[in-house]
Amino acid sequence: MSDAAASQPHFPLDNYELADRYRRESGRVLLTGTQALVRIALMQRTLDKASGLNTAGFVSGYRGSPLGMVDQELWRAKRFLEENQIEFLPAVNEDLAATAILGTQQVETDSGRTVDGVFGIWYGKGPGVDRAGDALKHGNAYGSSPHGGVLVVAGDDHGCISSSMPHQSDVAFLTFMMPNLNPANVAEYLEFGLYGIALSRYSGMWVGFKAISETVESAMSIELPPYPQFETPKDFTPPATGLHYRWPDFPGPQIEERLEAKKAATLAFVAANPIDRKVFNVPDARFGIVTTGKGHLDLMEALRLLGVDEKEARRIGIDVYKVGMVLRAT
């Protein structure tokens, strides 16, 4: 060994095992987008336990590219799910999966319940969102429960990589009056997933989560983020009739009225816990570029190739606004 090599600092190798992607609470792990979806459920359960909540989790959906491997990854993680009271039920179709998820939000109205609440995660590809539209729309209208919450993961194939036609679920979510989170990479899956469940619990909404082919089928090494602490909005008062699922709740105008209140609650939660951000935060910017999801990364790469870093952006007066959540304004 040369003197130069001998003088280099030696860093111990990380004693890393593949199962650490689900076992570790801090440090660095390797995750695919599919595995990150599984980890969201495990992290939510850990977060609840730390908060003194005895919750359970329920995951159901129907496979289809780009979410064609979700069920297999959930089966591989079976022992971790069982240890955390999370049940996986692969559904016959997307409609039945959404209906089963709605059932989990009724637990808190049952006097014989054995847990404080059940958080639900639905998954399906874009055409599955269309197919299950009636069930998803009714689920969002009837609502989530305060210690449950629902994340609706839509696998979108914009480039028609493995589908019969290109598809995206953004507009469908908007017609359901459902907030839609759009993470830019695998690391943001964890942040946005926990955010979505917290938002669902507060507002009574089901919350959409966009998982595109280029992201969910990719992998990256991630420094695990600390568990979040969300602020309760101070400037919003829920209506006397509440925001969440209740029984009995017969069809009628009260459901539509509650949707408006739930939208107001969503906007209040987002104001208290911002998920959008200004990238350069240039106060006197002359030009603004609005991005969301993977398109944000594409823009930042284009600016890099043009030689526009933060210093140059400030000089020429450009700022970038990254949208994390989309919600229909009217």
Reported for the largest beta sheet, the result is: 7 strands, mixed
What is the CA-based Rg, rounded?
21 Å
- Beginning-to-end CA distance, first to last residue: 69 Å
Helix content: 40-55%
Q: Give the strand content.
A: 15-25%
The tally of helices reads 14
Overall geometry: globular
By CATH's scheme, which homologous superfamily of the largest domain applies?
Thiamin diphosphate (ThDP)-binding fold, Pyr/PP domains
Kindly report the spatial arrangement of strands forming the biggest sheet: 3-2-4-5-7-6-12
Subunit organisation of the chains: single chain
CATH class designation of the largest domain:
Alpha Beta
* Average predicted local confidence, pLDDT: 93
**CATH-defined fold name of the largest domain:** Rossmann fold
How many domain modules? 2
Task: Report the count of strand segments.
Answer: 12
- Structural class by secondary-structure content: alpha/beta
CATH architecture of the largest domain: 3-Layer(aba) Sandwich
Order of H and E elements = HHEHEHHEHEHHEHEHEHEHEEHHEE
Low-confidence stretches: none
In short:
The chain has helices at residues 3-6, 20-23, 33-50, 70-76, 78-83, 94-104, 126-131, 133-142, 170-175, 186-203, 213-216, 253-272, 294-305, 310-316, and strands at residues 28-32, 55-61, 86-90, 117-125, 150-156, 180-181, 206-212, 219-223, 277-278, 287-292, 318-323, 325-326. The chain has 330 residues and is an alpha/beta fold. Helix 10 links the parallel strand 6 and strand 7.
